[in-house]
Design a protein that fits this description.
- It is a single chain.
- Helix 5 (88-112) runs antiparallel to helix 6 and helix 6 (118-130) packs antiparallel against helix 7 (140-154).
- A two-stranded antiparallel ribbon has the order 1-2.
- It is built from nine helices and two strands, in the order E-H-H-H-H-H-H-H-H-H-E.
- With 214 residues, it is mainly alpha-helical.
- It has one domain: Fic-like fold (Orthogonal Bundle).
- It has helices at 6-25, 36-55, 65-77, 81-86, 88-112, 118-130, 140-154, 167-178, 185-206; strands at 3-4, 212-213.
- The mean pLDDT is 96.
- 68% of the residues lie in helices and 2% in strands.
Length: 214
């Protein structure tokens, strides 16, 4: 069974944290501040995925949708019960939005997984989730990257972990996707598929099996 190598992921994310401000200054679309809390929450999400993989719970099944939503809660709040209580209204609004928007994404995924290769499938889901209107209220980039890696790992492909060396390209491509809309014809037919292909090529070039425990 393949699992995520949490120590290696932690190492890369903490290296990114050190260089983030410098990288962010060079981006055409600036990102929100990256904090140690963000990093720890992402690590919680990867640990949660390992638990799901061991338990053989499929995220994109009806049974797994609660776990898919939980990934976003972990990315934003971690496991801190007090923080979750503080953000209860936000969590409930996120759940409402997720419930409205996930059916179309799951329908696309169930059809696409029969024909697309792992990279087409994972990046196709990502740009559909991240573009406007987004699946979650907040944390779409972080949750989306984690979902890409979940799909890749399940299909025996190395994950793409953002680090200090590859962050610029990932943030640039993701920024273009985030500010495109699925509801605008020119974006859905041309811009988003192109941005998705660019991101896909980048992920293929920057994935690594060092983030896997076999």
């Amino acid at each position: 069974m393949l699992l995520f190598n949490i120590p290696e992921i932690r190492k890369s994310l903490k290296e990114l944290l050190k260089d983030f401000k410098k990288i962010n200054k060079t981006l055409s679309i600036k990102r929100e501040e990256l904090t140690i809390s963000h990093v720890e929450n992402v690590l919680c999400a990867y640990q949660y995925l390992n638990e799901l993989l061991v338990s053989e719970i499929e995220l994109f099944s009806k049974m797994g949708l609660f776990s898919l939503l939980e990934l976003n809660h972990l990315v934003l709040c971690g496991k801190d019960s007090e923080k979750r209580a503080e953000y209860h209204k936000h969590i409930m609004k996120t759940q409402e939005k997720f419930t409205q928007r996930i059916p179309d994404l799951i329908a696309w995924y169930n059809k696409a997984e029969k024909t697309l290769d792992p990279y087409d499938l994972s990046t196709g889901f990502y740009w559909r989730q991240l573009s406007q209107p987004q699946l979650f209220i907040e944390g779409n980039h972080r949750t989306g990257n984690i979902l890409i890696n979940y799909m890749l790992l399940r299909m025996n492909k190395p994950p793409f972990i953002v680090n200090a060396n590859n962050a610029w390209g990932y943030f640039e491509y993701s920024g273009r996707i985030k500010f495109s809309s699925k509801e605008k014809i020119i974006h859905s037919l041309f811009n988003l598929p192109k941005h998705g292909r660019d991101l896909q090529e980048f992920i293929v070039e920057n994935s690594s099996r060092k983030y896997i425990v076999e």
